[in-house]
Amino acid sequence: MEFEKILREVGLENRLDILHLLVDGAATVSEVKADLKEKGVSKPHITVSRYLENLRRAGLLSEKEGKFHLTAMGRLLLSYFDEVEEKLEAISTFWNHLQHPIDYLPEEFVKRMDVLQHARVLSDQYAIVAETFKGLERAEKSVSILVGNTISQEYTTANFKRILEGIKERVITDASVVEPDTEVYRDTVKKLKLNNEEIRKLKGNHSLRAYSNLTLRIMVVDDTMAGISLPEAGRQDLIVPSFQSENKDFIAWVRDIFEWYWARADPVTW
Fold it and tell me: Considering 90, 144, 164, 264, which has the largest number of Cβ atoms within 10 A of its Cβ?
């Protein structure tokens, strides 16, 4: 049977309940009817029998000696539904922060969004900026940054000082602000009065790439902390909502998103 028909069948009233009831073993129509009644679902024998027969025709159940069993396909499909339910439950705390489209996030990463359960949410832009500076200060080896608008000179100044101390940084900026960003870089070099050796070290430890139409923001600090902002598409003026965590699975998720964009961004020389 076509997968669409299978989904339509299990989406009908009480079908998933029946599949769950059969996880622990086979049951007759009467036993399924009784189990449903215990769950508060009262249905005639003929109706339950029809439900079971339809699930059998869909390939999710088999019948032997009057008892219905979950097939391998039935168990597999049920596990998929349970996995989706678990993932949705994991991010339910943040649902009110995720009502807008985030179609700029590749599908492979949407499937892993349950890692948000390990994060704290920041809905104040000033708090996010403060946390960004804290993240830069705590870095010991490397920082990865993805931004959608012009980088401030305040951040660039603090950043360049850390890079001269040995921190390696990779930055992805929106293609539309490459020129203003590189101008900020040059102004900061003048402001800090860097000599040629310091400039070479700075450029050796700092890599810049450009990507068109960036919306999200990312910061990954070593293997210790990561943050990601998922605002409305096209709203470069927003950096909320933002999620931050020291959880290793969350950090890996954010880093993988950064690497996806990094691989597709164009190198910039300044």
Answer: 144
Q: Are 70 and 22 in contact, with CB atoms under 8 Å apart?
A: yes
> In the predicted model, what is the mean pLDDT of the chain?
89
pLDDT average, residue stretch 207-228: 94
Q: How far is CA 205 from the centre of its chain?
A: 29
User: At 174, which helix (H) or strand (E)?
Assistant: strand 168-174
Answer whether 109's CB lies under 8 Å from 257's CB.
yes
C-beta contacts of 148-155 below 8 A and 24+ residues apart: 148/173, 148/174, 148/214, 148/215, 148/216, 148/217, 148/236, 149/174, 149/177, 149/236, 149/237, 150/177, 150/180, 150/181, 150/184, 151/181, 151/184, 152/184, 153/184, 153/187, 153/188, 153/191
Which residues pair with residue 244 across a beta bridge?
A: 120, 227
